[in-house]
């Protein structure tokens, strides 16, 4: 089993690929402080997000929603999205196909 490095993505946020295959990738994002941000972005991948811990305000297209531990949702291909950490925590994101830019 390959061990992937922990990569800083912004202030107080890191990502680590947990597993990957050309068709699917699982990635852990750690938010260490309230106010840490996952900047607005979009990509061609379908994304599923599971909130392992913490609390977050997500922007999904033109909607905002508050999510907390145990919540999950799917982000369609091409949808602009991002989040603000309200309580430190961990997101587990799955992408299909794999995010080659994360390797």
TrEMBL record:
Residue ranges of every copy of the Cupin type-2 domain listed in the record: 31-91
Coiled coil residues, start to end: none
Pfam families to which the protein is assigned, alphabetical: Cupin_2 (PF07883)
InterPro entries: Bacilysin_H2HPP_isomerase (IPR052535), Cupin_2 (IPR013096), KdgF (IPR025499), RmlC-like_jellyroll (IPR014710), RmlC_Cupin_sf (IPR011051)
Entries under SUPFAM superfamilies matching the protein: RmlC-like cupins
Gene3D superfamilies: Jelly Rolls
Entry-linked PANTHER family: H2HPP ISOMERASE (PTHR40112)
Name of protein: Cupin
């Amino acid at each position: 089993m390959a061990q992937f490095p922990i990569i800083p993505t912004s202030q107080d946020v890191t990502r680590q690929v947990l597993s990957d295959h050309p068709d699917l990738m699982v990635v852990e994002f750690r938010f260490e402080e309230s106010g840490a941000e996952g900047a607005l972005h979009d990509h061609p991948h379908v994304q599923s997000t599971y909130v392992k811990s913490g609390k977050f305000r997500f922007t999904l297209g033109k909607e905002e929603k508050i999510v907390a531990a145990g919540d999950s949702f799917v982000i369609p291909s091409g949808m602009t999205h991002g989040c603000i950490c309200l309580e430190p925590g961990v997101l587990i994101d799955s992408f299909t196909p794999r995010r080659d830019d994360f390797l």
